[in-house]
Recover the amino acids of this structure.
C-alpha cells in the first residue's frame, strides 16, 4: 500500500513549496509526490492521469485542498467516485479533516465526507466561474476606457484609403486591392473590417 501526494498550481510561475511541505509532513516521500502546473478546469493533466494509473486498491492519495484536484464540480465528484469506489483507494484532504476516506470510518463519517465534498466542489467551481466573470467585466471596462488588448495593429499602407474607395465602389477587385496594398487578400479583408469599424466609432 503506497501513499501518494498530488500537487497542482495553475501556472509555471506559482510556487509549490507550501503544498509539498504539507505532503512531506504527512509522511509522503518526495518520489511519491506528483505535480501538475496546469489549470484546474478539467482533469486532462499528465501528472494527474499518471497518478490515476499508479493508484491501486489500498493506496492513499493526499492533497492539500479540494481545489488542487480541480475546479469543475461534476468532474471533481466523478473523479472522487472513480478513485474511492472503482480504484478503491483512500483520499485525504489535509485542509479538511472530514474529507478522509481511509479505513475505519463509520457510516456517519462517510456520509459527512460525501456532503462536505459536494459542498466544497460546488464552491470551487463557483469561485472559478466568478473569477472568469470578474475577468470579463474587467476587460469590458478597460475596453470602454480605450485600452486595447492583443498585439498592436500595424499601420495601414499610405495608399489604403484610396485603394479602399476604389474597391468599395467596385472599380477594382479585392485581389487587386490587396496586391496594391502589398498584403494577402485575407489581410486586406481584415484591415477593411477594422477600418470600417473605426470609421463607425465601434473601436
Amino acid at each position: 500500500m503506497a501513499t501518494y501526494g498530488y500537487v497542482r498550481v495553475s501556472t509555471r510561475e506559482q510556487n509549490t513549496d507550501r503544498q509539498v511541505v504539507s505532503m512531506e509532513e504527512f509522511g509522503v516521500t518526495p518520489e511519491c509526490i506528483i505535480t501538475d502546473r496546469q489549470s484546474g478546469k478539467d482533469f486532462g493533466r499528465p501528472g494527474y492521469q499518471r497518478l490515476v494509473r499508479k493508484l491501486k486498491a489500498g493506496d492513499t492519495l493526499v492533497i492539500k485542498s479540494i481545489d488542487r484536484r480541480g475546479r469543475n464540480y461534476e468532474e471533481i465528484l466523478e473523479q472522487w467516485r472513480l478513485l474511492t469506489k472503482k480504484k478503491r483507494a483512500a483520499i485525504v484532504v489535509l485542509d479538511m479533516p472530514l474529507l478522509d476516506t481511509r479505513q475505519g470510518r463509520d457510516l456517519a463519517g462517510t456520509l459527512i465526507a460525501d456532503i462536505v465534498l459536494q459542498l466544497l466542489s460546488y464552491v470551487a467551481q463557483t469561485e472559478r466561474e466568478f473569477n472568469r466573470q470578474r475577468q470579463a467585466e474587467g476587460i469590458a471596462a478597460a475596453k470602454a476606457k480605450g485600452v486595447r488588448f492583443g498585439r498592436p495593429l500595424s499601420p495601414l499602407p499610405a495608399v489604403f484609403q484610396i485603394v479602399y474607395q476604389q474597391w468599395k465602389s467596385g472599380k477594382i477587385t479585392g485581389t487587386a486591392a490587396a496586391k496594391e496594398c502589398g498584403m494577402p487578400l485575407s489581410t486586406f479583408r481584415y484591415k477593411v473590417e477594422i477600418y470600417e469599424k473605426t470609421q463607425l466609432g465601434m473601436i
